[in-house]
Amino acid sequence: MSNVLYISSEAYPLIKTGGLGDVAGSLPAALSKESQNVRLLLPAYPEVLKKIKKSKIRRKTSYYNLPVNIIETKLPGRNVTVWLVDCPFAFNRPGGPYADEHGDEWHDNALRFAIFCQVAVDLSLNKFKLHWKPDVVHCNDWQSGLVPALLSLYPQRPATIFTIHNLAYQGVFDQQTFSDLKLPEELWHMNGLEFYGQLSFIKGGIVYADKITTVSPNYAREILEPEQGFSLDGLLKSRGNDFSGILNGIDNKFWNPGTDNYLEKKYSVHSLNKKLLNKTALQKELSLPIGKSIPMIGMISRLVEQKGLDIILQSLSKLLAMPVQYVLLGMGETHYEKLFTAWAKKHPDRLKVIINYDESLAHRIEAASDIYIMPSIFEPCGLNQLYSLRYGTLPIVTHVGGLADTVIDASKKNIDNGTANGFVFKELTAESLLSTIKRAMAVYQKPKIWRQLQINAMSSDFSWKTSAEHYVMLYQQALKEL
Fold first, then answer.
1. Taking 90 as the threshold, does the pLDDT of residue 18 lie above it?
2. Which label site among 72, 149, 222, 395 has the fewest CB atoms less than 10 Å from its CB?
3. Per-residue pLDDT tens for 318-335?
């Protein structure tokens, strides 16, 4: 058994903006079931402090002349101890974890997450004397990238793992910020935190962690190439066998149509006919024309370019001329929000756009939809296609990242051999998306084949257990090589 300090800037259900929140809310619990003694470290955002119940202050300290409390609590619904970094100056503010209510990044993100990292380092070195010392420190994304770098300066340190959830977000700041944060000078060089004359948090994780992972095998291959490597492909290649891809899992208890209390009607692979009742209920809820035979297309997404929104927008006039209903739930960049909302006003009986993130509605859309579209330009792992598979909602995806690892195209060969569970297209164009939607709708008109694809989808095992086992093996390897 290893003591594992799991460091994340978000964790569901306390705070979530995307896939990282889902992972950090589930993986620590899965690791605990694999006999790992896990503590989760998280910033104390206002939303987090509102959701915790029992808590106690374990230590009072300060960083950069700012008061910081270490608060201990539990992850709701999990037997996982959480340590919160409570620094009101850094984290007690309206808006999101990384940006304000207008979507603009906080001007002091470098300071905010430097404080977070400094606390993580001191916890890792047992400086607070909390009667618990980690053997392994597992960092996630740029917000914790300084931790492996700072720990590298100590000969007696835990093993460090750094997971890249999305290489596009790197935490890059100017050189003055490096000085302002009073980071050790020996870390400022081209093989350290310096990145083309700037400070890169994510580079700290990639250079200094003992092992680096990302969230799917295919994405691990993709980011070794310039197109998806965001100028870090050469560095990742140089890490050789220390870099690997481990596919994310999903929480099978929370995402389970057989026990999901958000649904109008629970169902399973053995009672798939009941899935239709969820479609009818959502049609009523959203004031869409009611009809069981109308194919419903769902999408739950951050509204950003990465998600393939431009090719969807280019497709909408032809898509909405088809006998379909399209339901979109999400929020993000203002121009996408406005464009989709405008389309919805013109086509109220075909398109519903909800600019929000609503967990219960997300579940109801997954259960109600027949098809789920996810035409991402790149997708490190993707979780919504996994939720869709679990709910018998067949995904239409691009052949990228974790989508390529998890969705098997309904070609004739794959239908015949019983492996198909969705639809995949390779060209990132509106034409390819539309032709794939038409192909899916043609199969939808063949109920026997469609039902078999649903059964294939729902029978897939994407639980966290397999992923957790891979991480435990990686921890053991890192400790052995330390």
1. no
2. 72
3. 999 999 999 999 998 999
